[in-house]
Specification:
Helix content: 25-40%
Number of strands: 21
Oligomer: single chain
Shape: elongated
Strand order of the largest sheet: 9-10-12-11-15-19-16-17
Distance between the termini: 31 Å
Structural class: alpha/beta
Strand content: 15-25%
């Protein structure tokens, strides 16, 4: 099951300047000096007898942001929303927020159709193709509303293979351009499809995280992912159960799920759209479907948010769906390391020593540091694919929330080129990341008298880096980066998944920045 909200996003190219006859529930016109001097605006303003121009000048005044106009004779659009446009110097995140907000406005007005005029103003260094992709991605992700587990307060309907909330009224979006050549229009359509597909991947990751833990156990997620192959024949899915994990001697992974009645699953997704001899990029995601902390149990306040402890795995799933939808010419392996961390008489205890797939023994000093235990074996396993690069994504440490807040994901790597490209894609998409050091000095945190490694160390200092230092011991054979998304993958107010860093990873892969 993927989670596409909109039915379609299309490009409408107007060569005669006529937008007064565009049939839509809501026509959005970004107001800037280029807009109000364009042939398209002059034509529709003439139909309004100058009312639109007057209103636009008011919208440009300081303090004004938008102006809603309803029912103008001679103009087909039922409503017109004049939105004060951003300028070239504005940060990309402001552009993203603007169009996500427009999607929410359209839903709040119960609009089924939305049309948006290209304002022809873009951030410095960006062009129209970037803009069209960004708007498509932002509108699709901004229109998302979770209601799957609501019966009385919201209903859902099945449209084809998609689950659509009736609270999401918006179905179709048209991006209006003008005077494009056939070649330019073809490129514009590709950009819109790509943005729409990445937006779908973002929503897929959001939805998987938003599902309550009893609706998204490792076995349920396994079924969801396997069913995706019916829609995307380019994806190949297999999974490893408890017996498989034991056969592969993944003692670190299995130690996490020992206390749970829910069996673990490692889900492997293969997408081979590139050349046969091209080494794949590997994505590894932490998929703790619920994290009580185990014997090192967490405090009760906020524990409900631990259903989002599988957002790394959700990101992997979302990215793989986007690549398949676009039919990207790349090779990618996605691993979702899913397990539930519960306390019971069978649960792993602090002080227990387990043996990882790599052969390294691990003293588990804190059972709430479980994500790194499933990732350790997943990172060893992925080596069998001989990947060109490996990126793991995990809601791993509360320390990254303190260090970076929700604005950026933390990045640590054993390869500077990879780290640089991740950060570059973060800037490109507004899905920002920031690098933290991974010097050898930090790696002493894994020392213990009773095993090769300890799963925690260093006390309160540099918790995010110490977690990455532990993982680095299982990624020494390839170029690797770790992304700590504990602060960026979901929001506590209002509660919900963000779908990050799907857009960052998609940009990194689709634009082949790791070549």
């Amino acid at each position: 099951m993927t989670y596409k909200v909109l039915n379609n996003i299309t490009v409408k190219n107007i060569n005669n300047g006529v937008i007064s006859n565009v049939s839509t529930d809501l026509l959005v016109i970004p107001v800037n000096n280029k807009t109000i001097s364009s042939d398209e605006f002059k034509e529709i303003d003439k139909k309004s007898n100058g009312y639109l121009l007057k209103s636009s000048k008011e919208a440009l005044n300081p303090g004004n942001q938008n102006h809603l106009i309803t029912s103008i004779n001679g103009i087909t659009a039922k409503k017109i929303l004049l939105v004060k446009d951003l300028n070239e110097k504005d940060d990309i995140y402001l552009w993203l927020n603007k169009y996500k907000y427009i999607a929410k406005i359209a839903n709040s007005m119960n609009c089924k159709n939305l049309s948006i005029l290209d304002g022809q103003v873009y951030p410095n260094g960006k062009n129209q193709l970037w803009f069209l992709e960004m708007v498509s991605r932002s509108i699709e992700s901004g229109a998302y509303i979770f209601s799957t587990t609501k019966n009385k307060t919201a209903k859902t309907e099945k449209v084809g293979k998609e689950i659509i909330s009736s609270n999401v009224s918006l179905k179709n979006v048209t991006l209006i351009t003008s005077k494009l050549t056939s070649a330019q229009l073809k490129k514009a359509k590709i950009s819109v499809l790509r943005g729409f597909s990445v937006g779908e991947g973002i929503n897929t990751a959001k939805h998987l995280g938003d599902l309550p833990a009893n609706h998204a156990t490792p076995k349920i997620i396994e079924k969801i992912v396997k069913n995706t192959t019916k829609e995307y024949q380019g994806l190949k899915v297999k999974s490893l159960n408890e017996k498989d994990l034991a056969r592969l001697k993944m003692g670190s992974y299995l130690s996490v799920s020992k206390g749970s009645d829910e069996p673990p699953r490692m889900i492997i997704i293969e997408y081979n759209g590139g050349k046969k001899n091209e080494k794949p990029i590997a994505l590894v995601g932490k998929g703790i479907t619920f994290d009580t902390g185990g014997i090192s149990i967490k405090p009760s306040p906020g524990m409900d948010e631990m259903k989002w402890d599988m957002c790394g795995a959700g990101t992997v799933f979302g990215v793989m769906c986007s690549l398949a939808r676009i039919k990207a010419d790349v090779n990618v392996i996605g691993i979702m390391a899913c397990a539930e961390n519960m306390p019971s008489a069978r649960a792993t205890k602090p002080g227990d020593v387990v043996t990882s797939m790599s052969g390294q023994t691990i003293e588990i000093l804190n059972t709430d540091a479980e994500g790194r235990l499933v990732l350790a074996d997943a990172l060893t396993y992925v080596g069998k694919y001989k990947p060109s690069y490996v990126i793991d994504m995990a809601t791993l440490t509360g320390a990254v929330v303190v260090a970076l807040g929700s604005h950026a994901s933390g990045v640590m790597a054993n390869n500077q080129f990879l780290a640089d490209k991740i950060i570059e894609s973060g800037e490109e998409t507004g899905d920002r990341a920031w690098q933290l050091p991974l010097w050898n000095e930090y790696k002493s945190c894994t020392r213990t008298n009773f095993a090769d490694l300890a799963n925690i160390g260093g006390g309160r200092e540099a918790g995010t880096i110490h977690a990455a230092a532990f993982l680095s011991k299982f990624a020494e054979d390839y170029k690797w980066a770790h992304m700590d998304i504990a602060a960026s993958a979901w929001s506590s107010s209002p509660k919900g998944g963000t779908g990050r860093p799907v857009s960052l990873i998609c940009d990194l892969i689709l634009n082949k920045k790791l070549k």
